[in-house]
Fold this sequence. Notes:
Radius of gyration: 27 Å
Shape: elongated
Number of domains: 2
Strand order of the largest sheet: 7-4-9-2-11-14-15-18-19
Helix content: 10-25%
Largest sheet: 9 strands, antiparallel
Distance between the termini: 66 Å
Strand content: 35-45%
Organism: Nitrosomonas ureae
Keywords: Membrane, Transmembrane, Transmembrane helix
Structural class: alpha+beta
Number of helices: 5
Protein name: FecR family protein
Amino acid sequence: xxxxxxxxxxxxxxxxxxxxxxxxxxxxxxxxxxxxxxxxxxxxxxxxxxxxxxxxxxxxxxxxxxxxxxxxxxxxxxxxxxxxxxxxxxxxxxxxxxxxxxxxxxxxxxxxxxxxxxxxxxxxxxxxxxxxxxxxxxxxxxxxxxxxxxxxxxxxxxxxxxxxxxxxxxxxxxxxxxxxxxxxxxxxxxxxxxxxxxxxxxxxxxxxxxxxxxxxxxxxxxxxxxxxxxxxxxxxxxxxxxxxxxxxxxxxxxxxxxxxxxxxxxxxxxxxxxxxxxxxxxxxx
Length: 285
């Protein structure tokens, strides 16, 4: 298990049955008495060492690519080279209105293949897709409204909106989807855009260019400035993403404390034994 998943994992165990979680923790492990106490102290030291910190670098994707979506946005994600029940990435929510397949997301969670992610008012989400081989394809569909920022890296993305089909690889782009049109802004790389209603209307778009796509047409690419690009993606600053990490200094202090308590218990038992008939035997005269 990854270090960042320890705290959420323990919390999920406890939350299965909150009224009985002490029994749930100890009964399968068959620990009792001082052993159970030491186990509890170790768990507490781990939890004490976990802390939540903001994600500082949100613009750099690994080989698997990333997707960020704004409020009032929803989309479904398919990974072509992974099985239907496989994990295709991790989701990090911003706010309590992010849903993964209809269930609320409160911390970093796994995203299964064919999952639907939606974000409510003043909420956002980031999905970091798993790395795969160079032939991988992530298909995004049911993207009917909202804003999205995506970095495709080496894994190609096919993004389907109401009006457009976008093919992107090793590119960074921004999408704004409304009822009547899709606005595609290319920040880095080169992508291909096709109108859904007219598949013959296809065009390649280079960095620092933008097109507007309706159901039947793709506009001529127009050059945009860095200030205009900033205006497109500034919504990303409206929400912050967090991750759970382990402060190993705190964990080490906690482990040392548990070790001291363990030594005290062991020596305490030894002294107790001496007082109950320990030492050299006595002989009667």
